């Protein structure tokens, strides 16, 4: 039976009332027990992210996660509330912070956020070694991180928190849903570093990293907007699956193209799927491709190293490609340049936390200079190969935060 608007409203009212009580308690504790009060020296304010909100009390913080509808009560470990309060309901979970350790469901999780915060060494449990982080792999190889069977939630009880991106899996009391992939725009996704920062009292660091990334991204977007061309280059994100090509309409990808100074496939094209076995579909697909300047081929493959321009042409099923400007100009790209064990793409990790590098890649793809080496995209029209990520590539001090890569921008 589906919930009525009235019942949903009541649920949220109850949650808000509970939080009001907690805020009152935190303030009273601060007034009556100064020795146990934890002063909040730094806070994070959400600028653009839509799917989580932060609230601060004297001895606690609250994260409201819009994705799963839960509120996370984070209690400072040297407050009296830390020993008295424990929540694990369908709507509220409590955690004692700063976390002493944590685990992550690394089947699909951007651990680069932990690296930027300097939290990687505290990640003591993972569910898969298919991660696109050299230093996370190094910690695992050194035995400092334990492999945990993700099918049994009880095994994660040994950790202060277990971070997941899959909200559909069975969850225990210490599970926290980290969902940057649900945001519509690149900078919104990057701002989720503030979500993790509050679990470690690292708001200042999270604010600094996000501010640096944001400013560099916006600077590059401004430079790209000032590039003078009579017409903006047309960019198509497309994917082939089971004999059918489709044009991608994910908002964050379209936003990247706009910010890089390009133009997305015309929204007036009302047909976005094309069956290569259908002559009419194939003809229409080829006609559209003849109008495109840059193609980003997102087709999934079990072996990225073997996917090349010939694979693309075979999937497109074309004999005469002379009208394809993106091939003439050698601008056929994939975002699988950095990959670990043929399964973990850094596109779903480092590219999420540092969108300024993705934007720089796309600017180079749209307005090629030949002076910039892309990070996440490889040009298969030029035969560019993948880079295999390995633990031996971790050449930094893991005990200190990784600095974001900031590109020259004027």
TrEMBL record:
Signal sequence, renumbered to the chain = 1-30
Q: Which UniProt keywords apply?
A: Signal
Give the protein name, as stated in the record: F12P19.7
Whose protein is this, by species? Hevea brasiliensis (Para rubber tree)
């Amino acid at each position: 039976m589906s919930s009525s608007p009235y019942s949903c409203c009541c649920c949220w009212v109850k949650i808000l009332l509970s939080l009001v009580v907690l805020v009152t308690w935190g303030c009273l504790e601060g007034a009556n027990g100064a020795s146990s009060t934890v002063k909040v020296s730094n806070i994070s304010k959400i600028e653009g992210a839509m799917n989580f909100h932060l609230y601060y009390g004297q001895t606690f913080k609250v994260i409201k996660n819009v994705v799963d509808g839960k509120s996370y009560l984070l209690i400072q470990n040297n407050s009296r509330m830390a020993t008295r309060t424990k929540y694990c309901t369908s709507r509220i979970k409590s955690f004692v912070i700063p976390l002493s350790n944590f685990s992550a469901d690394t089947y699909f999780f951007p651990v680069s956020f932990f690296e930027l915060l300097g939290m990687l060494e505290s990640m003591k449990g993972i569910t898969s070694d298919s991660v696109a982080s050299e230093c996370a792999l190094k910690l695992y190889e050194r035995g400092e991180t334990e492999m945990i069977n993700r099918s049994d939630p009880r095994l994660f009880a040994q950790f202060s928190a277990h971070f997941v991106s899959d909200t559909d899996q069975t969850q225990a009391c210490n599970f926290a849903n980290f969902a940057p992939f649900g945001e519509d725009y690149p900078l919104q996704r990057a701002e989720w570093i503030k979500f993790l920062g509050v679990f470690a009292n690292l708001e200042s660091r999270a604010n600094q990293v996000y501010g640096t990334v944001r400013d560099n991204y916006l600077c590059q977007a401004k430079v790209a907007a000032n590039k003078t061309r009579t017409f903006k280059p047309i960019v198509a994100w497309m994917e082939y699956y089971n004999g059918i090509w489709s044009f991608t309409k994910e908002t964050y990808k379209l936003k990247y193209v706009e910010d890089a100074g390009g133009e997305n496939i015309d929204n007036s094209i009302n047909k976005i799927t094309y069956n290569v076995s259908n002559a009419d579909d194939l003809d229409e697909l080829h006609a559209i491709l003849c109008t495109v300047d840059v193609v980003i081929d997102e087709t999934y493959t079990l072996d990225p190293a073997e996917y090349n321009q010939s694979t693309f042409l075979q999937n497109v099923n074309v004999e005469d490609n002379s009208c394809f400007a993106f091939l003439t100009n050698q601008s056929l790209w994939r975002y699988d340049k950095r990959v670990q064990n043929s399964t973990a793409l850094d596109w779903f990790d480092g590219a999420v936390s540092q969108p300024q590098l993705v934007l720089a890649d796309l600017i180079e793809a749209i307005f090629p200079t030949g002076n910039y080496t892309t990070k996440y995209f490889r040009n298969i029209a030029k035969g560019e190969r993948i880079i295999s990520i390995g633990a031996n590539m971790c050449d930094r001090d893991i005990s200190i935060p990784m600095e974001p890569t900031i590109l020259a921008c004027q």
